[in-house]
Amino acid sequence: MEIILNELSLENQFENSEDFFIKFKRIIEVYKIAIDNHFSLLKPSHLYSIILFESVSFHDILTAPQYRKSDEMKRYKSILSKIIQDEPFWDLDALHVNTDHYKCDFTDKINNYGLAEACERDKYVFSFETKIYKDKNNLEVKKNDSETIEIKNLITSKDITEELYLKGLIDESCYCIQRFNNTKLSFEELEEDYGFKTLSIEQRKLFINKFEEFIEMDWEQILKSDGLDYKEYTPSKKNWFGGTEYNQIKIMKFRISQKYRCFGYRVKDTFKVLRFETNHKVSDNG
Question: What is the DSSP letter of 214?
Fold first, then answer.
């Protein structure tokens, strides 16, 4: 899967350096997902010269003293340098040709820009969450005044994770780790032998839908929810977690359906998912 960085969503799209760094955090998440999942995030080789605000370019953000010493730059300099300087660059091996014309509402250019290249690749772009692009799911490009091509516009890491999952490029475990990152659910400790591979396709959808419901609630709502029935696991016989590193941890569970349960433990405001149950035998014992 190839995704083109939409450089038009950078050109003079920011109010100042603070606004840029707030929105830049999005691409850090995307960059990490690209590395973890081995897909290509392609950008133009001249990215360093693009003007972000006023007369300030990417290169200026990296090198000018007033930006170089900022807390944000100290935190992000390494990854910003990689994004600007490291391959892949789509224009070093472009698939669209200058004899074709690609017109859209966002630029007067007719070729040699990211949206034009996306038309000849997988038809995905990643855009910064700026005013022009943030509410657009699809971007239309007209090729040679005859063919209208729809480009999928991805704004967040969630958008990209959803596409990877829908295309079958990541499994449910990887999807949930990425999708629910920085939410009330964490799947980093989900045990493989008690996780998604034990579920049917329909069961996986049911579990994921319930996880979406879970993160939309605050903890007060979760604790009061009759539907979730969030409570402590208190085994009267054999402890399902006996002999594991979780033996002395207070294990909690919540309802996925009448028979299905999700087990884990809470750390501050995060529920660490450990195991799934689909036959209710464990729950019958606690």
Answer: H
